[in-house]
Design a protein that fits this description.
Shape: globular
Radius of gyration: 22 Å
Strand content: 15-25%
Largest sheet: 9 strands, antiparallel
Number of strands: 23
Number of helices: 14
CATH topology of the largest domain: Transferase(Phosphotransferase), domain 1
CATH architecture of the largest domain: Orthogonal Bundle
């Protein structure tokens, strides 16, 4: 990777971030923005559109091809414009590091699950801060970001057992006599000024920079880093430490009923500082997927190092299979089970990072789910089925049917299914309308599915949220339901 290579990627990176920003401006209630000042191509504002290089949006008759410059022209806060600048710079850096398509054998048979996650160079498909990493230097991004395919050393920091809050069953491999070993990300160690631990293990970041896979371990480590990525600083809150293992027990049982493989958080822990659990010195230990071809839905749209085409073109055994048939099978594996869980009282935030497609001989078999921070639980619905919700910290419990449906539908329908339709349409020249008809044909069966899929589809308003007084409070917009067009 050279400076010339990065410069060559800047035009496309600006367009990609500007396209996401433009889409947010068009569909979301962005505070302080008068849309009559803006003019740009409608097709570039559509969710999951591929922004053309050199995309320009006009403000007051002046064309802008740089999202940060457009934000400043609109009078939006400088910190948001700086986040857009950071997103562009990191996206260009990641694209410059992406290997040119080798034109050789398909990538999938030779790739691990971590390899596949590291193919997701462009980050969040709708968020203008898709590659924002506030707190990391360029050298840090190169050293730790998954798109640069690093191997990092995770420090195993010894902590006296009485100085840690632990939930779940702390793994034996993370014990040293009477002390517990806390996995600490190396950037966090340096950020906090901690000495290097005597013990450490090499690991590779998954599509979330702070979540790490260790070769030979059957778990992934969700570590804390005081870095803003997209909208949030990615520490591990005391609520997450409390909730993860407790939710795992409930969700594993319910997932077995519904047909969803839940990847439980077997343990979580945080160092006690002044008697309180520290979100900056904390970890969640999550079971890794079983051996076999399991990949996040987001990876299906990522470019393959072999061909440059979306990985869905290689992940699937296409012999005798047409795109709409694969789509129906993938939708069948995901939507009815998650709708059943919703009916039981659990709304999973089933977006493309948390929801994994399990393939059997190249065909969709089932889904797996990880990461419980965004779920919503209905104690009333669970009680109606003879189950009791665990005591939860934070805002995870709600009996509001609109809140429950919105949480699942925005992630699963407006994001996962919609991105898959857009990807198949581009890769195979299929009309989107025909693909949506295939989806509609698959989703006519149960009351639970109809409740989830009818009416407008909500979508998280990521640009408006980033500019809101509290950017962590969910805001939503409604999109037309493509199944009802």
């Amino acid at each position: 990777m050279t400076l010339d290579g990065i410069d060559q990627q800047l035009t496309g990176a600006r367009a990609a971030v500007l396209g996401r920003f433009w889409g947010g401006l068009c569909r979301e209630p962005v505070p302080g923005v008068d849309r009559t000042r803006l003019h740009g191509p409608a097709e570039a504002a559509q969710p999951f559109a591929v922004a053309p290089a050199g995309l320009t949006v006009e403000c007051d008759g002046v064309g802008y091809d740089d999202p940060g410059a457009l934000a400043r022209a609109l009078g939006l806060p400088e910190r948001f414009a700086a986040e857009l600048d950071n997103s562009v710079a990191n996206l260009a850096l990641g694209r410059a590091a992406r290997p040119a398509p080798a034109g050789g054998p398909a990538y999938l048979p030779r790739a691990s699950g971590t390899d596949l996650e590291q193919c997701i160079v462009d980050g969040h498909p709708l968020h203008p801060c898709c590659r924002t990493r506030i707190g990391l230097s360029t050298a840090d991004v190169l050293a730790y970001a998954p798109e640069h395919r690093p191997v990092v050393r995770v420090d195993l920091m010894p902590v006296a057992a009485e100085r840690m809050l632990v939930t779940g069953a702390w793994p034996n491999r993370l014990r040293d006599g009477g002390r517990l070993l806390l996995p600490v990300h190396p950037w966090q160690r340096d950020h906090l000024g901690l000495p290097a631990a005597a013990a450490g293990v090499p690991a590779r970041p998954l599509m979330s920079l702070r979540t790490l896979a260790v070769d030979g371990w059957a778990v992934h480590l969700k570590t804390a880093v005081d870095v803003q990525m997209t909208s949030a600083v990615r520490t591990v809150s005391p609520a997450a430490v409390h909730n993860g293992p407790a939710l795992s027990t409930l969700l594993t049982a319910l997932g077995a009923k519904a047909g969803v493989e839940v990847l439980p958080e077997v343990a979580a822990g945080a160092v006690l500082v002044g008697g309180e659990p520290s979100r900056s010195l904390a970890v969640a230990v999550r079971r890794a997927p079983a051996a076999g071809l399991t990949l996040p839905f987001a990876a299906l749209a990522a470019p393959s190092p072999s061909s440059g085409r979306a990985l869905v073109t290689e992940a699937v055994d296409w012999s005798g299979l047409r795109p709409h048939e694969f789509l129906r099978a993938a939708v069948r594996a995901a939507v009815p089970p998650l709708a059943t869980l919703l009916d039981l009282g659990v709304a999973l935030e089933a977006h493309g990072q948390n929801t994994l497609l399990v393939l059997d001989r190249g065909r969709p078999d089932r889904i797996a789910y990880r990461d419980f921070g965004g779920v919503r639980i209905s104690p009333r619905r669970l009680a109606a089925y003879g189950m009791e919700a665990p005591a939860l910290h934070g805002d995870l419990a709600t009996d509001d049917p609109v809140d429950l449906r919105t949480k699942l539908a925005a992630a699963l329908l407006s994001t996962v299914v919609s991105e898959l339709v857009a990807t198949l349409a581009r890769e195979y020249g299929e009309p989107p309308e025909a693909l949506w008809r295939a989806v509609a044909g698959e989703l006519r069966n149960t009351t639970a599915v109809r409740t989830l899929t009818t009416g407008p589809w909500p979508l998280k308003a990521t640009t408006a949220m980033r500019l809101a007084p509290d950017p962590l409070v969910d805001l939503w917009v409604d999109l037309p339901n493509p199944l009802e067009q």
